[in-house]
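Data follows
____________
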Amino acid sequence: MTNDSQGDIGRTLCMLDSASKEKSGRIIPLSDQIREALIEYRDEVNIIVCADVIRTERALSTSPQAIVNMF
């Protein structure tokens, strides 16, 4: 949801309905600072384009409910 059609970090975060309980999908603009941090993070951990941004020490992907619980 962070990548644009070329696989680069985009300027928006595209939340699909399927990622938001099927009813509240939206496009969220990213500030330049957040976008730069995501680019730096991707370069630092050397992840592939389709990898998840939020991971735990036990898994490479995280469920939406786990993220809610973290906050």
Summary: Strands lie at 12-15, 26-29. Helices lie at 32-45, 64-70. The first strand starts at residue 12 and ends at 15.
